[in-house]
Amino acid sequence: MAQLLIRFLERELQPSCQVACLESIRILSRDKFCLDPFTTKEGLKTLSRHAGIDYSEELIREVPDLDVILESLKCLCNIVFSSPRAQELTAEARLVVGLARRIKLYNERSLPHEVKFFDLRLLFLLTALRVDIRQQLAQELRGISLMTDTLELTLGVKWLDPYEVATEEGLLPPLPRQETERAMEILKVLFNITFDSSKREVDEEDAALYRHLGALLRHCLMISADGEDRTEEFHSHTVNLLGNLPLKCLDVLLTPKVRPGSLEYMGVNMDAVSILLDFLERRLDRGHKLKESLTPVLNLLTESARVHRQTRKFLKAKVLPPLRDVRNRPEVGNSLRNKLVRLMTHIDTDVKHCAAEFLFVLCKESVSRFVKYTGYGNAAGLLAARGLMAGGREEGEYSEDEDTDTEEYKEAKPNINPVTGRVEEKLPNPMEGMTEEQKEYEAMKLVNMFDKLSREQVIQPMGITPSGNLAPMENAIRDMADERSSSDSDLGLD
Fold it and tell me: Which end of the chain has fewer CB within 10 Å, C or N?
């Protein structure tokens, strides 16, 4: 039946007959066992021709009936999604070129929302599933510029400055449902083709393009969509894409001038950063799929804080305000600091690393300050990974301003247990009333228990090497002895 439908489509038929055939193909294409007749060069060429995106050196032949175009696009989406063979053939047929050509004409041609949406959905699938198509769109077809222009057209923005979108005073109206759907597909395509942008150096021309895109993404953060769930999804795609931009281009988040109603800090507009922080807290409170939902925004805020002093100081004031409560552990409570410290011992390595890295950067990568806010027990994982168990500070471009302590913290500081990060109740001395012989007996008993556990490989005693890394105890002792011997020889001691 599938073969007959494809052959039937190759004839000259009335649009209503073509639509009926394509609707049947769309239903059949949902079944992975019925895909073979559609995953041939001829079958895909027929469908792409009816979709109006068949690649040719000349202009694409117009397909007058929009219902035929729409049904063909839906069929292609189903087939490409389910069939690796179809993905390979669409790459060979250069379908992405036909799609890019039509998208480029959105400003000139009046196409219905559904056609534009499935154009973009098919482009997303192709770039998600094929690395070669992703590279072709990004490089040969200048896809970042093309999709940025399409996003600008979809959002309907006007520009106040080169990197600032003009907005009316007061609350911005929500983005209509259809525009939101298309914008999210565009954001997903842009995410695919900018995946490695943050890891490579860009020239001034590319930097200007990324800053232009960053200004549009800032606008996306500032507006809402139709409903809370749709707004959350829209902002999520925006945050994911912001994380792909080169770090030096994230300054556009702070570019807009401070205006009435703006959140100002150190003379800088912090509206976008504040929205990102609120987004982070909502994701923390939701507690669902933490790796997928939290790591993008945590990484974005961490890198922004690392390269922009004002952003770091604003985030520190919000997340790590001067300590007052030193009676509770750092992970106990409902403040943003408490929630993030709890993540530092999360079972997922990526989640706990991102949370720890964020707080460490807010502490200007100072070990003593990091331990002060999180407790040594919570901080140990990151410090061990960085070779900072013995203290110190990572190299970084940070100002030398001191941390401000509250009177409550200064008063309690001598009694704070650095491991738990709080003032501990004074416990009775278990050796009180013992003779020296009894104390020595209990100490040796404990040593023997540790020795037995170590020999049976239940535990492995660890020590800190002079470089600040954890190592098995015998190695750590040997390294310390070697360093002491080296120091003595340098001083000319026997």
Answer: C
Q: How far apart are CA 212 and CA 159, in angstroms?
A: 10
130 closest CA partner among 182, 71, 196, 84: 84
| Type of residue found at 80 | V
Coil, strand, or helix at residue 435?
coil
In 3D space, the residue among 300, 301, 284, 418 whose CA is nearest the CA of residue 346 turns out to be 284
Nearest-10 Cα torsion for 110, 112, 116, 118:
-150
Res 467 pLDDT > 70: no
Q: Tell me if 294 sits within 8 A of 353, measured CB to CB.
A: no
Round to whole Å and give the CA distance between 188 and 121.
9
Quick one: pLDDT band at residue 242, thresholds 50, 70, 90? very high
What's the confidence (pLDDT) of residue 145?
A: 96
Neighbours of 209 (CB within 10 A): 16
What are residue 265's DSSP bridge partners?
A: 268
How does pLDDT run across 126-180, given as a tens digit for each residue?
A: 999 999 999 999 999 999 999 999 999 999 988 888 888 877 655 678 999 999 9
